[in-house]
Amino acid sequence: MTTTHLIEQIHKKQSFLCIGLDVDLNKIPKHLLNEEDPIFAFNKAIIDATHHLCVAYKPNTAFYEAYGIRGWKALEKTINYLNENNPEIYTIADAKRGDIDNTSTMYAKAFFEDLGFDSVTVAPYMGKDSVEPFLAFEDKHTILLALTSNQGAFDFQTKTVNGVELYKQVLETSKSWRNSENLMYVVGATKAEYFADIRKIIPDSFLLVPGVGAQGGNLQEVCKFGMNDSIGLLINSSRGIIYASQGDDFTQAAASKAEELQVQMKEELQRYSS
Ligand SMILES: O=C(O)c1cc(=O)[nH]c(=O)n1[C@@H]1O[C@H](COP(=O)(O)O)[C@@H](O)[C@H]1O
């Protein structure tokens, strides 16, 4: 999906919500465990109940890999279900990959060609030749980790090298990579005070912003400093939506949590368009 199409969907749905499909069999309603494929059954129910409120879904591959072959099959069924039934939805494989070039190419093929995701998250630590193989897929987006939501972000990302913070060097340097117009960046919602500086370096790029909900990030603060003329934000919540209830009402509870965020997003869109 192109960025133009994504922006159209944001305006149409008055939402820049991304729902994280981080499925943990210990947290889903017990009755689903009797299904042939409980992970897919859960995802299908969540997608059917929430797709009108969000523009993107982000399965984190860890939650599928943890269940071996049946997890990977459930991931494949989930992306196929989305692509067939909700082609207007933007899809993110949250896999945080990146390796030497020929290996990165195989990772890119796995998520873009075999599974058919619109984008994949990639770690920048191995540099240009580890990221460009993802960018070689010109009709896809590569979402580079810039400033992550966790405490460990301060271990390396905010450290200065030659007087400039490492995450700023990632942003600046990546702009010179081949097909860099297809880059998006991960910036944690818990780091709202950094968004103004980040926007000085990458004013136009889309940011994937996890960390509202369970991690305590603030949506309004992120919008204040992170929104640009094309909105430029995809704000993710996983646990806060999909585990809103573990009872029979789990789909209604998830939809109601998603709607709470969508209503706040609509207010922000109106505020910044006026
Ligand atoms: O790349 C990510 O999506 C990501 C980056 C980051 O800095 N922090 C972060 O929480 N994430 C992911 O975003 C999701 C957040 O989930 P919740 O905290 O449950 O909303 C998880 O899948 C994380 O792996």
Automatic annotation (TrEMBL):
Family in the record: Belongs to the OMP decarboxylase family. Type 2 subfamily.
Pfam families (UniProt xref): OMPdecase
Name of the protein in its database record: Orotidine-5'-phosphate decarboxylase
Gene3D superfamilies cross-referenced by the UniProt entry: Aldolase class I
Orotidine 5'-phosphate decarboxylase domain: residues covered: 16-254
EC number annotated for this UniProt entry: 4.1.1.23
GO biological process: 'de novo' pyrimidine nucleobase biosynthetic process; 'de novo' UMP biosynthetic process
SUPFAM superfamilies: Ribulose-phoshate binding barrel
Pathway: Pyrimidine metabolism; UMP biosynthesis via de novo pathway; UMP from orotate: step 2/2
